[in-house]
Amino acid sequence: MRIVVADCTVDYEGRLTAHLxxxxxxxxxxxxxxxxxxxxxxAYKPLxxxxxxxxxxxxDGRWVVVNPKGERLTITFTEVHFETAIEMGDDPGxxxxxxxxxxxxxxxxxxxxxxxxxxxxxxxxxxxxxxxxLLCRDAEGQTVAVEIKRRGEIDGVxxxxxYLEFLNRDDRLAPVSGLFVAQQIKPQxxxxxxxxxxxxxxxxxxxxxxxxxxxxxLF
Amino acid sequence: MRIRAExxxxxxxxxxxxxxxxxxxxxxxxxxxxxxxxxxxxxxxxTDTDITIRTTLxxxxxxxxxxxxxxxxxxxxxRKLPAGAVSMTAADGEVEITGNGPRFRLRELNVDDFPKLPxxxxxxxxxxxxxxxxSALSQVGVAASGDEARPTLTGVLFxxxxxxxxxxxxxxxxxxxxxxxxxxxxxxxxVPFRAxxxxxxxxxxxxMDVVLGDRDANFATDxxxxxxxxxxxxFPNYRQLLPESYPNRLVxxxxxxxxxxxxxxxxxxxxxxxxxxxxxxxIELSVTRQEVGEETEHIEAEYQGEELTIAFNTRYLxxxxxxxxxxxxxxxxxxxxxxxxxxxxxxxxxxxxLMPVRL
Lengths: 219, 359
Fold this sequence. Notes:
- The structure holds two protein chains of two kinds.
- Chain A has two domains: 84 residues, Protein Yojf, Chain: A, CATH 2.70.180.20; 111 residues, Trna Endonuclease, Chain: A, domain 1 (3-Layer(aba) Sandwich), CATH 3.40.1350.
- In chain A, 18% of the residues lie in helices and 42% in strands.
- Chain A contains four helices and twelve strands, in the order βββββββαβββαβαβα.
- In chain A, the strands form two sheets. Chain A has a seven-stranded antiparallel sheet, with no helix packed on it. A five-stranded mixed sheet of chain A has the order 8-9-10-11-12, sandwiched between helices.
- Chain A starts with a strand and ends in a 10-residue tail after the last helix.
- By secondary structure, chain B is of the alpha+beta class.
- Chain B folds into three domains: 112 residues, DNA Polymerase III, subunit A, domain 2 (DNA Polymerase III, Chain A, domain 2); 118 residues, DNA Polymerase III, subunit A, domain 2 (DNA Polymerase III, Chain A, domain 2, Roll); 112 residues, DNA Polymerase III, Chain A, domain 2.
- Chain B is built from seven helices and 26 strands.
- A nine-stranded antiparallel sheet of chain B has the order 14-11-12-13-26-25-24-18-22. An eight-stranded antiparallel sheet of chain B has the order 6-2-3-4-17-16-15-10.
- Chain B starts with a strand and ends in a 5-residue tail after the last strand.
- Chains A and B meet through helix 3 of A and loops of B.
């Protein structure tokens, strides 16, 4: 990662043209070649950027970044305040948030909550593309892969679909059905899951934790 | 397409079909209603792809054809014309709506983009009286959930129970059951309440044909039809929640109880429960909200059973009591932490099971 804090202007030419007037900005060149220009505010999006693959041409007081589509990002430096480079290595990826990990633990302890006759084979069952949260067997002995999310969205269904594709290649497990579990499942995710024959179950985190609410429920 | 019709009739068919049109649809075409003229009949179709409403009107048809016009704007435009005959003409990408002077020229939406919708559905067919059917639906509908994240609870279950059609809805805090005798039974079918809520206004209250299919439910009267995708999920096993009998039984005037809960609600707002002390001679009703104050009152009532104090969410209690058709309410209880059952005196067709709130 190369980091430069400098007074600069930035010009983009491509699908449209855009100009950032002279100001102090943070310019990052990442190990994969991505270039991002940030202001001193906002946590989400650079002011301008160029994804890899691209070619960075360093001239005196000017960087020109060109990608294969012919888009061009020109950063013109008037004064460089700070510059460094650091080897960051591979990123371990996003850790599951606390609730999701806790849901997995609680459900592994009582998988019957997810369906009558369900028994746990193991947590974090490995597949070539990452571990599926729970691998279970249903009352008939069929394999069930369970993916657990805090919020049930389309991404989660896609993820489970990919796991199922790999798990179903394993003759010892096939046929493997899918069970998508979340505190709340969005209608679009449910529709996609239904379409792919994946069952959905919503779980009450507080109930699993045994926390009493003054509002009692019928079921 | 070119027609002439009475303003009020045309405004009515456009507005009723427009009730299926969602306000936040991502597809611009779904903001429109499809108008089709064939012979002397105008058919108007509005849909959000889950719910479809079709209305028809006998018109003076000057030219057959099809067009899609912006639902809300066209209905309002027709409604605001002077009374009398209105003509609607679609040509060259525009729809002209005129009547006694004023003239609207509205952009057509592309008729080819309008979704192809199934015509009716196959399945169990029932004939019901529209007025009593919509009334029964509104009784159970109060217990249906509005939370789309749990679709199963947003539906009303249609279920055969001998010679009776049973309607059931629950949001997990309360459960409403309404039996409609002398209507043939059906396989359990879960129909979204947000569609059922539209039946009265969209189709009127005349004789209604109901078809419950594998994928859709279809409701039709002489004023039009409404079809909706059913919810393909298993409804909770509600039968186990309805006990055979209760040890405590209270009979109270519906008006007295509603008035009292209404007064208590002024203090309680939604999240503070109303406390009912049930004893010989009636109810001591009280509500306390620390930062505001309290309200207490006595309600005359007949009570058989052990003295008991039970608390309910005021809105849920009001919903259940209001839904009872009789003038006198029966509240049956067994325990402060177990559900109470609300029904009408000598009326077993409607039951409303309400979970109490822990004090």
